[in-house]
Please model this.
Amino acid sequence: MKRVAIMISGGGSNMLRLIEDMNGAHPARPVLVLSNDPQAGGLARARALGVPVAAVDHRDFPRDREGFERAMLGPLLAAEPDIICLAGFMRILTPGFVQRFAGRMLNIHPSLLPKYPGLDTHARAIAAGDAEAGCSVHEVIPELDAGPILGQARVRILPGDDAASLAARVLVEEHRLYPAVLRRFAAGDRTPILIGP
Ligand code: GRF
Model:
């Protein structure tokens, strides 16, 4: 049974779907939800589902990214995770931290990577006149929002879409894609999952 730690920064809607899917015959179970914000709404939601939680406030480590990450390693390593899922985690991790979990750290990003790494992905897709947008689950490597793609879900950009309306439709697909990718990844299968519009 694979042990999964999930790192969040906010409401944790993706985290919830991952936890809810890890039951029955699923080859993984959640062992920790960790946030960089002690006020993150997702912490109470995880606790309500009986999942251990921890928080390390990144604001306690101004200009000290390594110190912040060392503090996170405490609860993280104590949970002995096999897999780490970044789910709405909004801090950039150093190459040293990422390398510790090489090949077993996943992230979900709201664009069809390699297009639009970074922020404001939906606004950028609309501004570019793209016909489609979507989300990607990828293995985390030191380069931001890069790494092998494990899954993608595509949605059409509709006339009149703004970033908020598009984000809402993409989020629905994130909630389908991430659990499906984690289930396959935890079973040792890295075949990408591609969901089309
Ligand atoms: C989602 O759009 C996700 O793609 C991005 O963070 C947003 C919020 O995620 N990484 P969640 O609701 O906190 O899971």
